[in-house]
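Protocol step 4 of 6: structure prediction from sequence.
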Amino acid sequence: MADLFGLDLRKRQFVTASLAKVVRLHGYEQVEVPLVERATSFSEDIVGRSPWPEWDVRGCFYMLVPDYSASYNSEPTDTEALLVPEGTISVTRWLGRQLAENPDMTFPVKLFYDMPCFRNEVVSDLTGLKRRQFTQFGLEVLGAEPGNSDIEAIYLIARCLEELGVPKNSTRVRVGDVGVFNRLIKLSQLDADAAIQVKEALDALAECKAGKLPERAPGLVDQLTHVLDTGGVEPTLRAVWLKLAGTSDSINAVKVLQDSVIQEHLDRLLPLSEVLRDLGIWVEIDLSVVRSHEYYTGIAFEIDVIAADTVFVEVGGGGRYDKLVKHFVPGGPFDSIPATGFAFGVERLVELLDHLDLLHKAEELYTSIRLNVAPAEILMTPGLTPEGYLSAVRVAAGDRTTGRPVDIYLGKPDVVEQYAAARKIPQTVSCEP
């Protein structure tokens, strides 16, 4: 953990204010959650055994909070808690509480957060950048089906970096699908322990392919091979896993199986990637990008910035997590609440921008906080197709350039009027292609 003062602090504030400016122009509201969370929110039943790469339960700051019922003279009841290690869990817990109080709330909910997070990193791993306290800026779309909401999350990553001055053609998004990984695990008949080992190896190999410490790759392939051989994975599937580990053509690597479940996931992923490319975003499909096979349920992605002399691998990441919110509405009618989002490590962004000399060029930022009741002035209704979303982005661009917030509707078409009324958005514009 480190103290910040003067220019160092202003750099971080500049970055978070710039990110907030972008997402507010797209109709997102900020949510603030406590920095202390009940430990049960991060239990294995909720987040799984490996909720993010390199997870270790010892990497959280746990504590006992004494709860005094009536006065400090009474015997307290201890509540297990922890300092928040990442924002998404607390945000979904917040949504669960809202649903418990109002089961008929209107979806989707678009929000963002900017908060300090805490991880008990191993001392020898600590650096000027990797600390036990860091700032996370995240965005979540809650209650919107897969498709356009995933496109918007990735599109906003690119817009945020562009706002900070990063050249558009320098931002690369590597996209995978956890559904493909889980299907391969099932076909390979690997147990839960082996699945985690395969996931950790693939995630690290995805980083190697992206340019982060590529010299690790041979050892990681050996680890993966050992897990597959120990698990008795049959030759065809073994070959698919090893091809995923090393190839940039992961689509054809899995297509050889001619599996209908895998094909369903690819049929959703490929059109999404095409629309992102039409939006000018550099997208690479890499099915070795998993992040967490327990936490995420569909698309998973990581964001890199390619500079002239180096590659900044994973300045941010995210994905779809449709099964998370239900854990925070006990006894409720919700089997799943579709949700997607991403998060940046702000200190990582500051390092990147310093390296590219972009903060010096920026110098100042003009932003504002609107006190209007509505989060947006205009609601665009694109329909459910990716092409409709593409059309809406193009139509909305002019208003957003002048500072008018425009929300693109990501929910079901039959409740768009209810959504506009609940958000008090005064103008609705249809832009279906």
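Step 5 (inspection) to follow. The first helix runs from residue 7 to 24.
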